[in-house]
Amino acid sequence: MLIGEVARRSGVSARMLRHYDSLGLVRPTGRSDGGYREYSGEDIQRIFHIESLRSLGLSLREVGRALDDPDFRPAELVGDLIRQTRERIAAETRLLTRLRRIGAAEPTDWQDVLQTVALLQALGSKSAGRRQRAALSSVEEGPAPVEALVEAVLNETDPNVAGALRWALAQAGDDGLALLAEGLASPMAEVRKRAVQSIAEIPDGTATALLQEALTSPDIVVRRYAALELGARGVAEAVPTLVDMIVDGTNDVDAADALSALASRSASADRIAAMLVDRLVRDTVASPARLRLTQALADIPGTTASRALADLSQDEDRAVALTAAYILGMRPGG
């Protein structure tokens, strides 16, 4: 079969067939009387083998080795191809992500594009100082790609940089909340923690709703951060978690402050006092926890807290009794 007919049947151009010949990949086994290349059935079969291997991403040199080297190990080459393909996909994914972020910034000219690229590069810098400056400047220099800020804050380990990123996100309002909500469901505990910390700094009704949902999170750290912020926002649903924090001695001072803020801003002072007293009288509460609960009653107004302090001033635990008596003496009318 002459080269033109082979090209038509195989879909490989005559030019490529000549290239294969020059490389020694497929040499026609015969020549016509006129000196034209003439391909046998085996030659054509080899052409199809070459095209099949090329479809896997093999170079022509690798194709030649695969077909002619008796020691060739296909499994090893396939493993290399898998690794190379994964690296290529990762690189393409990074490029796609960068292009999406540039598009999200809605550039109006190439200067905007270059500015966004510079910001993305700075946010990915190995220098904490450069990342922090990028976070702070992202607000001053125009609309920042919120998706990039969210990814940066969820992966940031430096506390100063993380603080700057949270501030930058807060300036964007609720634009990043959907992505931060995904962070709350991350399998990584640190990412969940950073997500709830970031949400807590966004003064928005949607953020408050997300924090209320976070109170039911299986992650106790997420629940505690949510409760502290909700307490400051006057959301009474945070009370049980805040009381638990006092009992456990985890950020108990902050939890007590949040309870005090809640008690002063709402009609839940007696309810808060009753919950503190309930935990005080449980036999399972250890002495240090009882002392912390007593101290937490100090800034809870109302008769329920005052009566509880009066009873506690006669407590068998001397530290609790003295603390309660002191607090009671400092209260109005004490």
Automatic annotation (TrEMBL):
Residues annotated as signal peptide: none
InterPro entries: ARM-like, ARM-type_fold, DNA-bd_dom_put_sf, MerR-type_HTH_dom, MerR_fam, PBS_lyase_HEAT
UniProt entry keywords in alphabetical sequence: DNA-binding
Keyword Disulfide bond annotated: no
Domain HTH merR-type, first and last residues per copy: 1-69
A Pfam family the protein falls into: MerR_1
The protein, known as: HEAT repeat domain-containing protein
Species for this entry: Nonomuraea bangladeshensis
The organism's taxonomic lineage, starting at the top: Bacteria, Bacillati, Actinomycetota, Actinomycetes, Streptosporangiales
